[in-house]
Specification:
alpha/beta, 6-stranded parallel sheet, 6 strands, about 40% helix, about 15% strand
Length: about 250
Amino acid sequence: MTASPAGAPSRPDSARASGSAVPRHVAIIMDGNGRWAKARGLPRAAGHKAGAEAARKVLRAAGEAGVECLTLYAFSSENWRRPQTEINDLMGLLRLYIGSELNTLHREGIRLKILGDHKAFKPDVARMIDEAVARTAANRRMTLAVALNYGARAELVKATQDLARRAAAGEVAAEAIDEAMVDAALDTADLPPLDLMIRTSGEHRLSNFLLWQAAYAELLFVDTYWPDFDGDALRAALDAFAGRERRYGGL
């Protein structure tokens, strides 16, 4: 392990090498379901259903490539502003996905982790999520992290409040708070450092997703709508990552 520049996350040498490196942690902003459906004259719900199938394909491809953690931005804290019918469709799809995929996740050694506050969902959905997380907790082959009712600014506020409470209680000196302590207070504390963030649909912004974690991540924006992003598309993204030289602020 080589030392990282100040402020940069530590990485094994193999994760820095260009041309052959597989990112340990890939995050995806799954964008474009609605536009995919509109282009085909279909309801938005059809786009979300196709997007769930894309997630299944990408998860499989990520596992085959050796990615340790795949994080998917499924429902942001801002998504509550969408029409209630669409929110209901998304909740129904989440129920369906957990019900149909949980056995497969567990059988394949994939741990499910949730980022954000899923307790804001309807009790039956929150309960299904809790049961799925508990059932897969001991799995170690790969982690699927799903951001639900997640917002990076809210995550940072919560982490700051937690550290402020600890400082007020005398558990830690305020001047001793450093980046490692902030990392440990985030929802992603037990995940590998973020290496690659992908956004589909041609948009070029992070949309309040993993803002702290993305500080040294490689960013890749693709024009493909999420329902059309499959295993081949992920492999192309991993190839693009492997061809980049990561300097972490160095020469």
